[in-house]
């Protein structure tokens, strides 16, 4: 997840006029309130869904752009993006489906599933303590979703240079990357994502990976145990051990004290290309919240379909039938 020098590829972000705030003001004035009401209902019973929607948004935008291709069901003939291993544990799809159903009842074939993901994620961010921000809308839904396209999504085993390259391919800078990874101020990870950091090297007797705070390591060892367990039954731990349900800059402060759970996250505070950004974000919570909101808008502009491109799906999990 990051190289030292990199050439930005000329793809990624659409121009400002392609999307606009208030796109549905005339065609479906209640679009945003309808989405917000659904998110609020689910958040009220399960606040962890905010992290689920953030991950859904990220995984959608990082494959074919923000086109809701992540929502398509697999069929007997074709395996969709959701079939990929990294996507099988995604959450929040039921929220998008519910919002879409409510919108279809009010404004048939008007609001795209891609816009619903962007709006629902914004609403979840606000409920989790993040800063409110305007979401430019007008995205169209994609016409393709194939498992083979799921590549380039940064993962916990990546290096900082690899991740920087992955973000750059989407027109996102190193600073954007570090800020967006502030999403790890909420949410959890399975023990398999960091288990090697709890083990000692047989040859040196030292723990693998970068230095970890001893009290955190003891806590993680107790939570995870020593046996290997199937992923779906594997224990989970919070990325942020201090304020795991709130979007704030404490995540970065933890990294500066060797309390990052994932090796990749911890390396953000050690790599020369990202350390200074981490230090700055850790010192300014208000600044982080503003930068996070701006980066979320920028991520939502990645490779979108607009105008006559794509379609407006009637159901988010299936493509429209040919007319």
Automatic annotation (TrEMBL):
Compartments where located: Secreted
Disulfide topology: 28-107, 61-66, 113-316, 191-224
GO CC terms: extracellular region
PROSITE patterns to which the protein is assigned, alphabetical: PEROXIDASE_1, PEROXIDASE_2, PEROXIDASE_4
Membrane-crossing residue ranges in chain numbering: none
Secretion signal span: 1-16
EC number: 1.11.1.7
Described purpose of this protein according to its UniProt entry: Removal of H(2)O(2), oxidation of toxic reductants, biosynthesis and degradation of lignin, suberization, auxin catabolism, response to environmental stresses such as wounding, pathogen attack and oxidative stress. These functions might be dependent on each isozyme/isoform in each plant tissue.
Protein name: Peroxidase
